[in-house]
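Schema walk-through. Below, the input block comes first and the output block second. Nothing else is stored per chain. Lengths vary across the set, and this one has 311 residues.
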Amino acid sequence: MHVLITAERLFRGEPFALRVPEEAEATLKPGCMVLISTTGGRQSLSTAYILETDVEAPPSHPPAELTDILYGGEPVLSQPMMRLTEWMAGYYLTRRIDCITATIPLAVRTTVDEIVEPSDFTLEAEERSTKNTALRRRIMQLLHQEGRLTVKQLQRRLGKKQLYRTLSELERGGHLKITRKISSTSQKTAPAWRIAPTLPAEPEEGLKNTPKQLETFHRIAAFGPGGASLDASHASRRILNTLTASGYLEKIDIPLHGRFDTGMPTPDEGTKNQLQRNAPLLPPSAMPSAKRPTIPFCCTALPAAAKRLST
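--- output ---
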C-alpha cells in the first residue's frame, strides 16, 4: 500500500507517495504522525504526517522509508482538522506541512524528551500478551540494567527503526512506562551596567582625565538602579569593562521581553483613553503654563511686516 505523506525536512515539505510495510497498513490512517528516514547516503530522520491512504503508486519510488509510527497509530489530527489544513494551504498559498505544524501543539510535535523506565510491579487480573521479539528483549534488558533511559539513548544503542512502535506496544502491555519531560524555557537576559554600590573616593575627580569614561559614567547614573543596556549606554564594551574593573560600574543581567504588539490597547491604556475622552475641555487660559499652547513667532511677525510694507 502507498500513502500520501508530507515531511518537515524532506523534499521541501512537498507531499509524496510512500510505500509502507504490510504490517503497518492496518495501523496507518490520515492524520497519523510517523517517522521516516532517507535511504542511501547519509540518513536523515524527519517527522511526517499521513495525508491519504491507498493512493496510486508513483512512477519512481522516493529515497525514503517508514521508520516508525508515533503515538501507537492514533491520529494527532482529526478529519475536520485535516480538511482545515488543506483549506489553509490553498487559501494562504502555503505548504500543507506548514499548516499542519502550526495546528499541532509543540508538546505533541516534540518526541525527544521522553523518558522510558520499567513499570512498577502490580497484580492484575487482566492478561496482557506481548509478542516476544529481539528488539523488545533488548529494550527490557537495558531498562533493567540502567533503570531509566531517554528515547535518544535507546536510539543511539538500538537504532531508530521501529523503536517508537515497539515502546508503545510494551507500554500497552504494562512492561514499561513512558513519561514526557517538557523542559521549561528560561528567561532570556542581556547584560547591563549600573553604578557600583561602593564607589572610589571622588569618582568625577578620578575620571576627569578620561572624558569618554566620565560621560559614560554620568549617562549610566541617569538610569538609576535598573541599569542601562549596551545600546542605551551609547558606549563601547571596552569603556564599560574598564569602568567595571575600576569599581565605578557594576555589571548585571536584565530580563528581555518580547516586542509583540497586538495593536489593541491594554486595560490600563483603555481606561486612560476613556478618561481622556470624558474629560471636559479647558480654555487655554485655564491650562497650566507648561502645557499652554504658544503661537509661533512667524504667525505674529508676518502679518505685522506685511502691514508695514503695504503702507
